[in-house]
Amino acid sequence: MVEEIRVMWCDALEELLQCPVCLDTTQGTKVQCINGHHICNPCRVQLQICPICKSSFIVTRNLAVEQLAAKLHDIKLSLLHPYHALNRRVLHNKVCVATQTEVVSMPSTSSACQTELVNQAEPVMRSEQQKPMLNLAPRVGKGVFPCQIGSCTVELPHGRIIGHIRYHHKDVFYEFSTRDTIFKKRWSLEYILNRDYDFAFHIKEMGLFFLNVTISQMGDLIASVQIVNCIAVSKQFVYTFEAVGTINASYSGPVKSCRVRRECISNDCLHVRENNMRHIIDNKNFFHCNLTIKRRVNYRTNAVQDNEVHVLEDI
To answer: At the top level of CATH, which class does the domain 2-128 belong to?
Structure first.
């Protein structure tokens, strides 16, 4: 529960620091309008009025937003990974914010006892120094995001939509954690005509994703993956979806934002015809799915290669 609250507040802080135009939280000069709405300087040069309240800009910089944006990564690291080795270096050999809170909340009768508690945490910190740097989830897009489970029409900010799915769609919600930038999962689904399979899974180091697998009335299979984030962040991720059987049908391409309507990506996802599905389903009328999601390290410089759909014989 404590970890979920920390994630929620990290998301909320990131939303507050985002520029309302480019949705970026990068460091740099932040200017504001007469009503206090901040905007990054590159976007300010292109606009004459505030995009939120339509008022004029002033020459005063918003130093508070600039300083918070500069320390956003350190704040997230301190809250989400309180015992990480970098907290020692970032906070100048002091226990991080989350750790201080945990130590102070523990009962103690003297300063000597408090010192002992802090010293007990030091071996853990030293062991963490030998581990590689943990991956943090990408920044959160500003605004609301639609729920893609079934016929649900709810739209909520990122920090609240996870709670909505966990409470209202708990039967199809899964939570995972991965140690690197690659996530793999296998599903077995029953082949039923005119059936939709919707799943939501939260990968701690990547974000919240929707998986939709549709079997049409004609028996065609359509599968797509979307992330609960803005379009800019979705470009960090690529995925491969495979339907495995006597022959394999696979699709590799970029993950789409959940703000993109499914009708718009129907030609940009896995699509297997009914005659090929006959070779994929087993004798119990089930088919197996392999999903791989990868976060690209060089997503800012390299473009995603052309999407490909393959139907290959299993060797």
So the answer is: alpha beta
